[in-house]
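The instructor's notes for this session suggest beginning with a concrete chain rather than abstract definitions. Hand out the sequence below and ask the class to guess, before any prediction is shown, which regions might be ordered.
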Amino acid sequence: MKMDYIKYEKSHGGRENYFPVGKKKDAVGDCVIRAIALALEMDYMQVMRELMSLAVEKFGTPYANNQKVYDDYLNSKGWVKRTLKEGKTWKPLYKHKRRLEQNKNYIFHVKVGFGGHLTAVVRGVNKDTWLCQEKKAYAMYEKP
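After discussion, reveal the predicted structure:
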């Protein structure tokens, strides 16, 4: 079965300007920072600092991957979260291709293992360190 994927481009979201990338040991679980930096077209380090600061303010610990932290952060930037549940199920990310406008940016929350993953779609191109479009998409963030 052929998948109708969203165009994909490997990207570290600007992390490569500050930290090593490309080797397995360099994987640090920074998908939230990467996706936000890409979709909001901001500097990776600026996003990391702002998320860490917000996390410390809210919870006393610099954990940027907390959903309450990045939900508040995106909300403060004017982004809204939309659920992608259709009936009782969720579809894979690539099946939401028809929802995307080519000149807009999006962040998708997809199910990976027991947790989640954020990935950015920037003007019609899925930018991430790996192709996660077969994973079920729970929510989409966008700026109206």
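Then share the key points. The chain has a mean pLDDT of 94. The two ends are 34 Å apart (CA to CA).
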